[in-house]
Structures are given as C-alpha cells and as structure tokens.
Amino acid sequence: MQEGFWIFATVVLISFTAGAFSGFGSVIIALAIASHFFPIEMMVPRLVALNVVLNGYLSLAHRGHVAWRVLYRELLPWMALGCAVGVAVSSFIVGPLLEGLFGVLVVALASSELFRLYKNRPRVPVAKTQPIFVLGAGLIQGIYASGGPLLVYTLSRTALDRFALRSTLAVLWLVMNVALFVVFWMNGRLDVQVLSETLWLVPIVVIATVIGELLTSKVNERSFRLVLFSLLLVSGGEKCTSLSSVTVRSSTAPEPRAEKATWRSMPEKSAKSAEL
After folding, report:
1. What is the chain's pLDDT, residue by residue, as a tens digit (276 residues)?
2. Which of 16, 19, 141, 247 has the smallest number of Cβ neighbours within 10 A?
C-alpha cells in the first residue's frame, strides 16, 4: 500500500467516526484535515462513495427513528431547490469571501448554542424547520458541498431527539450522495479505477461506524449536543480561514483542475506541504 493510502485512511477513520456519531461532518472534517496533503478534486468523489456506504447503513439500521414527514415536506424540497441553484450559480459567485462569510455565520450560530448549553438554559424547540435555513444549506451544498452545518443547526432547534436527528440526516445525505455519485460517474470523476481504490477504505468506514454507534449509545442528550455544536464550531472555523486568502486569490490565476489522481500521486503533495 502507498503511504498516501494510510494517511487518507486515518483521516477517514476520524471523520467518519464523527459522522456516524453525529449524523454529519464526515466530508467537511475529512476535507479540512486532508486538504493539507491531497487535492480536494481527488478526495471528493471518494468521500461521496464512502458516504453512500455509511449513510446507507445508518438509514437502514435506524429507519424506525427517521422523521419521514419532516424529511419529505420540510427538508428534501428546499434542499433540492437550493442545491440546484447553488450548482447553477457556483461558477459566478464561488470564492473565498462567500465561503468565509458562511463560516462566520456557522461559528456565530454554534457559539450561541454552546453558550446556552453552558448556562443550562432550556431549549425551546420550534414547531418546524425554517425554510430559509434549509434553502441556504442547499445553496451552500450546491456551491461548496458543505451545507451540513447550517442544516444541522436548524434541525437541532426542532423537537427531534438525537436519534431522530441523526437518522433523518442519514437518509437525507444518502439521497444527496447517491445523486452526486451518479453525477460524478457521468462526468468521469468516478470510474472503475477510483471505485476499486475506494473499496480498500470500506473496512475503515465499517470500523468508524462501529465506534460511532458505540459512542451514540453511551452519551446523553446534552453531551450529544455539546459534541454536535463543537463540530459545527470547528467546521465553521475551518471555513473562516478562507477569508485570509481573499486578496491572494484575486491576484493569482486559478489552479488547474486536478486530473484523476491515484494513491501513488498523493505523497507528492504531502512532501510539498511539509516543505512549506
């Protein structure tokens, strides 16, 4: 096995354990860590394929906890609309400034919820999800594939308990990742070679899922929400770092689209990162 494989496998173990536990975060945490070593263009198709495995299991194993009414009436329509708009306009408005401002919003929302938990103030659930937040989550998902933080925030404010929240998110991510899987297959970002390499990571996802399930069964509602909003805080903070590159990006040419990379090419970027 190549050195790059084991680096990426370690990242998958960490991020997918968090995803199995909380219902979100596997992709954004993996990208936040592994982008220091590997091209994002190379990672995203593999992570999407692995997410189908994770969320497929969670959706099937915990289907009894899924809030189907919320999923079909309040989440999927707005997420689909926002995602479609995001994909359509991504080439016009994508940039570090927008990504950074999104991170600032997530950090502010997560911080307010963590402060409420710290003060032990009671949570007053809203009757329904707020369409503007779900639409915004879909928009960010279409532009950056990182709509999870905003969606988790609005769902966490409803009356759903941690089991319903995690299971409902799993079904939603399964639907969206299957759609992305098809798109990536059609545009060539996923092919037999990429899938054959990704299959070696499935046992890592299985291990991460087992650990996540064990953690879920051993924590209470308050601890779950502390971890959930801490993940949101970290995810938003990672997006805020884009603000530091606003002026730099404007004066430099965009990076060329990455070719289909393999594990053999991964350590090369690791070495470059180590030199910086």
Report:
1. 577 888 999 989 988 998 888 887 788 788 777 877 888 778 888 998 999 999 999 999 999 999 999 999 889 999 989 888 877 776 666 567 766 777 787 788 788 878 877 877 766 666 566 788 888 888 877 776 667 778 888 888 788 888 898 999 999 989 988 888 888 898 888 889 989 989 999 999 999 999 999 988 888 877 877 887 888 788 778 778 777 766 544 444 444 444 455 555 554 454 443 333
2. 247
Structure tokens at 187: 């545009």
Q: How far apart are the first and last CA of the chain?
A: 26
Q: How far apart are CA 15 and CA 114, in angstroms?
A: 21
| Residue 27, token pair as written in the block | 């992709």
What is the biggest distance separating any 2 CA atoms in the chain, rounded to whole angstroms?
52
138, 90 contact by CB (below 8 A):
no
CB 127 within 8 A of CB 70: no
pTM above 0.85, yes or no: no
For residue 113, CA distances in Å to 44, 105, 163, 254, 265 come to: 30, 13, 19, 37, 42
Neighbour tally for 29: CB within 10 Å: 24
What is d(CA 70, CA 272) in angstroms, rounded to the nearest whole number?
Answer: 46
